[in-house]
Structure formats: C-alpha cells, structure tokens
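Need a sequence for this fold. Nothing fancy.
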C-alpha cells in the first residue's frame, strides 16, 4: 500500500485548497438549506406538492454538499506522486545507536555549522558540545575553522590533524564530509591518534637512546684499539691500562644488551602465564645472599624485617628475583652514603609489600614520576659510574605489570628513598602479625 508523501510541497498546497473548498461547500450547503426551508412559504401559488418537492430536493442537495469528500470537488492540476511510507523514526534510531557504539567522537551538523547530533564518544571527549552548539565556536583552531568552511562551501570530504590541549593533550585526525539526502547535513569524525603518536615517539626515542648508549663504549673501545696498534704498541703499562678500560666498556655493552633483550621479551609477552605459588620471604633472602658481597664492599648494613609465616604470591620466581635484586642493588649503589639499607616485608589481607629503604641523598621530587622511563637518569654521570644502563626500573615496571603489582616511590632530599613493591597475595595465604627482626649480615634466613 502506498501513501502520499506528506512532506512534499505539492501536498501542502493541496491541503490548503481542500480547506478552502470545505469552508465554501459548507456555506453553500447552509444557503441551499435555508432556501429550501423558505421556498414553501415563498411559492404557495405553485401548490403544496411543488413546494414539498422543492423542499426535499434542497435538503438532498445540502446533504450531498455537506458530506461530499473535499478532494472530489477539486480540479486536479496534476496527480501526486505516491511513494513508500517513510521509516524515518526507525532509521534515525538505528543510526543513533550505531553512532553511539563507535568509540570515535562523531558530530553531525547542518549547513549553518550548528550541531544536530553528537554521539556518546563526542560528548565524553568534548564536554559542553550538545545539539545546538555552533561548531565554529567550539573548535576555534585555524585548521578546524578552515575545515568547517571548506566542507560547507565545497561539500567534499576534507581532513586535518587537530590537537586538543585540555583537559589533557590528545591528537586527532579529523575528517569532515557531506551526508547523502535532501537535507544538507555534514558529519565530522575524530580519530584519536594520541596513543599511536606516543608509541612512535617512544620507539624513536628508544632507538636514539639505545644507539647513543652503545655508540659511546664502542667509540672508546675503537679508540683504544687504534692506540694499541699504534703509539702504545710497545708500552706494556699503557697496554694493560687500556685493556682494563676496554674490558669495562665491553662489560657495559653486554649489560645494556642483556637489559634490552629482557625488556623486549617482557613487552612481547605482557601477560603472565599460570605462575606457581612462591614465598616472598625466600626470594628476598636469596637476593640478599647474592648481593651481600656488594654490601660489604660498600660498607653497608642490610636490616631485614620478615613475618614469621610465609607470604605466598603467584608469579615467576626468576622475574621476581630480578625485581628485588634490581631495587636492592640500586639502594646499595645510590644510598651508599647512608651506610644502611632497611628491607621490610609485610602484608595485609589482600596484598604483600616489600620495601627497600636507603638513607642516601634522596631524589628530587620532579624526577620521581619519570624514573621508570627507559634510559631516564637523575644523574647521568653518577649512573654511569655505578655501571647503570637506565633500564632497570623500566624492567621492574614491566615485570610488576605482568604480576598485577605496582611500584611506589617515596623520596626526600637528604633523607633517602623508599621503593615499595606491592603484589596480590595468593588465595588461602595465612597471615601472622608477629614479626621477626633479623640482620642479614649476621643470620642465615632459609
């Protein structure tokens, strides 16, 4: 079944004509009725029979005029085009739901640049932009103004890169194009490129930093080789000194390559498989045993506080050993002036915490948020003196992410630093508030 298109201009004109015809028809019907009622009194000389006949015909004509459909009285100038019944409500509802399902912000605006629709992604990303908002008033950047003007004037697809500064910096690739249909509507889609650009910058910085870190020892080794082949060829003392330096530089390159490989393996497998239950006390004790020679050489005392009962976590023993070893090694290197390192192992109902506290010079507050970045160093020369690669804390962060843990850092200048590892406890772990204080350099912990 087909109905007339009620939105067409022709149908609107026909409705106006019908309304005027209905009014005219009812006036004629009223006049004929009054004439029929008055005729018997005006035409008495014609006799009662003729008067009754005129009265009956007048009432019949009035009834036909009153009940006749208005379109039957019209002279049709042209037939109306029949079209299928529009389903605009259902189509609009489906389009709205589809747009809300898209994570990218989407705006639909009219030829005046006024927003007529914004999906949920657009409302979340750009607060305050609602239907009725003018696009030019919300996006005042020159590239966005040019984009809006170009698509409104030319009606062709256009695209630009747009940076949103607040509440946080985000980079979008924005595309605007016209929509098909009788109404002049345009759609603008914002594709978030922030994470992709961040990864690109990180990759470029990583390559640059890795190249720089490897280039320095390689240049040193190359220079010493040339010296040994030339002026110092017959100088035993110079040769021995240069060989020691070359060995130190090659060892540094080996550590850097090992850390790069470790970091690469962790990034390739960001999720930990089915780990086994491990006692944190045992791992921490093993780390202390392995680094006790370093502590003695640095004249450092290591104080350890452990719970009397096991603290079980799920994880990879080698990776957790690497985490604790890295933090204790850093405490011994950079907190050497404090002459003491304290290690606390404790837990609450859900989490275990291992803290490494040194009493060294501390870390300036502005550096703390960036300590886990690759190759980031507070003091480059001091880090190289202690044979650091700048990747240790980045490896710690990746391992803790795999184990659903986190790293907390607290430091004050002149008071030392505390690095705390928080890990979720395994189910069924038994807690005991009784603590046993041991000195690692005097007692053996099994």
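Here you go.
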């Amino acid at each position: 079944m087909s109905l007339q298109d009620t939105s067409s201009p022709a149908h609107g004109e026909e409705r106006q004509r019908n309304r005027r015809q209905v009014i005219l028809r009812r006036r004629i019907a009223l006049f004929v009725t009054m004439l029929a009622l008055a005729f018997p009194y005006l035409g008495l000389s014609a006799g009662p029979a003729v008067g009754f006949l005129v009265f009956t015909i007048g009432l019949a004509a009035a009834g036909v005029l009153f009940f006749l459909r208005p379109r039957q009285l019209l002279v049709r100038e042209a037939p109306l085009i029949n079209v299928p019944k529009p389903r605009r409500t259902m189509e609009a509802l489906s389009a709205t739901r589809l747009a809300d399902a898209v994570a990218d912000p989407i705006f639909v605006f009219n030829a005046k640049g006024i927003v007529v629709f914004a999906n949920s992604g657009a409302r979340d990303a750009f607060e305050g932009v609602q239907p009725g908002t003018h696009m030019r008033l919300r996006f005042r950047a020159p590239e966005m103004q040019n984009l809006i003007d170009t698509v409104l004037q030319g009606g062709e697809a256009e695209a630009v890169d747009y940076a949103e500064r607040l509440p946080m910096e985000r980079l979008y690739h924005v595309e605007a194009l016209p929509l098909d249909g009788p109404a002049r509507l345009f759609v603008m889609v914002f594709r978030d490129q922030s994470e992709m650009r961040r990864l690109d910058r990180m990759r470029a910085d990583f390559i640059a930093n890795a190249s720089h870190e490897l280039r320095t020892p390689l240049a040193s080794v190359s220079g010493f080789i040339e010296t040994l082949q030339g002026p110092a060829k017959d100088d035993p003392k110079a040769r021995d000194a240069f060989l020691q330096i070359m060995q130190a530089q090659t060892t540094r390159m080996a550590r850097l390559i090992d850390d790069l490989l470790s970091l690469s393996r962790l990034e390739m497998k960001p999720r930990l498989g089915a780990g086994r239950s491990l006692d944190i006390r045992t791992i921490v004790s093993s780390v202390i045993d392995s680094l006790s020679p370093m502590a003695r050489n640095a004249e450092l005392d290591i104080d350890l506080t452990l719970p009397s009962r096991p603290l079980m976590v799920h994880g990879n023993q080698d990776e957790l050993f690497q985490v604790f070893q890295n933090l204790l090694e850093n405490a011994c290197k950079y907190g050497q002036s404090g002459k003491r390192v304290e290690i606390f192992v404790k837990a609450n109902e859900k989490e275990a915490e291992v803290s490494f506290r040194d009493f060294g010079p501390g870390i300036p507050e502005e550096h703390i948020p960036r300590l886990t970045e690759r190759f980031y160093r507070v003091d480059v020369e001091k880090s190289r003196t202690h044979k650091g690669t700048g990747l240790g804390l980045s490896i710690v962060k990746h391992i803790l992410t795999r184990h659903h843990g986190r790293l907390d850092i607290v430091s004050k200048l002149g008071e030392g630093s505390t690095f705390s590892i928080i890990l979720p406890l395994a189910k069924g772990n038994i807690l005991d508030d009784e603590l046993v204080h041991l000195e690692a350099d005097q007692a053996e912990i099994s």
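For context: The longest strand covers residues 170-178.
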